Amino acid sequence: MAARPLLRRLAASAALLVLLVPVAACGEPAGPPRLTVFVPSSLTEAFTELAADYERDAGVRIRPVFSSSLDLVERLEDRPEADVLIAGDRTALEDVAELLGDTRVIARTSLTIAVAPGNPKGIRGVTDLARPGLRVVLGASLVPVGRYARSVLAKERVPVRTASEEISSRAVLTKVRTGEADAGIVYVTDMRAAGVAAGSVPIPADQNVTVEYPAAPVRESDHPEAAEAFVAWLTSAPARSVLHRHGFALP
């Protein structure tokens, strides 16, 4: 019989422990927020450095997701899991404008013609891209680099038959680097990633376009204030210094 009071005391102690554990857990300080940032692949190197700097200085963890602007926007439409979206042009944001807060342009670049090392086809400018037999690759018309490239070609009235259409500037560059294409229109800043594996034929300023990278916080972010602060920081002097070092022009 003496065992029953002991069992009752143990049961009461266990119940009290169950009540106390959640209270203790709730009293623990919350860790730093983690922001998921959707980033175009053409910003990979620059943004990796930006994220490391911000984590060190602001104590906010950054989880970048790199892909094409088209893929990032489609993912955001399906499930708003990001806290911040960066895209390769403003047009890419139109379908998700209602999901985003205030937009800021954080960087700019321009276009160039990627060619094989040594330029064996002797390409001198955009008009040469209409040459018969030349394998030219462009970005798809639904992605920023494709829209920008077609704008240049339309302005110069250059008809181009494409060998393929790719999802991003880096995908176009890969086709040239691997010899699957003779030429392609890519971002100037992406040529840094090519090294000696590709050459470049400049597009003059009067034929070129200004490529803009807009960034915006996602309204349904779990950390709206942190997301807004990060987007604001992307236009700060330290962030601009990193972007400039990676070859981007500044707003």
Q: SSE layout and pairings?
A:
Elements: H1 3-27, E1 34-40, H2 44-58, E2 61-67, H3 69-78, E3 84-86, E4 104-109, E5 111-115, E6 136-139, H4 144-155, E7 162-166, H5 169-177, E8 183-187, H6 191-194, E9 199-202, E10 211-217, H7 224-233, H8 237-245
Parallel strand pairs: 1-2, 1-3, 6-7, 6-8
Antiparallel strand pairs: 3-10, 4-10, 5-8, 5-9
Organism: Thermomonospora cellulosilytica
GO molecular function, one term: metal ion binding
Binding site for molybdate: 42, 69, 187
Strand content: 15-25%
* Shape descriptor: elongated
The residue ranges in which pLDDT falls below 50 over 5 or more consecutive positions are 1-29
How would you describe the oligomerization state of the chains in this entry?
A: single chain
Give the N-to-C terminal Cα separation.
Answer: 82 Å
Helix content: 25-40%
Q: What is the CATH-assigned architecture of the largest domain?
A: 3-Layer(aba) Sandwich
CATH class call of the largest domain: Alpha Beta
Order of secondary-structure elements: HEHEHEEEEHEHEHEEHH
What average pLDDT do the residues reach?
Answer: 88
Pfam family, one: SBP_bac_11
Keywords: Metal-binding, Molybdenum, Signal
Binding site for molybdate: 42, 69, 187
Family: Belongs to the bacterial solute-binding protein ModA family.
Q: Can you describe what's shown?
A:
- By secondary structure, this protein is of the alpha/beta class.
- The protein has 2 domains: 34-108 and 212-245, D-Maltodextrin-Binding Protein, domain 2; 111-202, Periplasmic binding protein-like II (D-Maltodextrin-Binding Protein, domain 2).
- The protein is built from 8 helices and 10 strands.
- The chain has helices at residues 3-27, 44-58, 69-78, 144-155, 169-177, 191-194, 224-233, 237-245, and strands spanning 34-40, 61-67, 84-86, 104-109, 111-115, 136-139, 162-166, 183-187, 199-202, 211-217.
- The strands form 2 sheets. The protein has a 5-stranded mixed β-sheet. The chain has a 5-stranded mixed β-sheet with strand order 7-6-8-5-9.
- β1 (34-40), α2 and β2 form a beta-alpha-beta unit.
- α2 runs antiparallel to α8 (237-245).
- The relative contact order is 0.19.
- Residues 1-29 have low confidence and may be disordered.
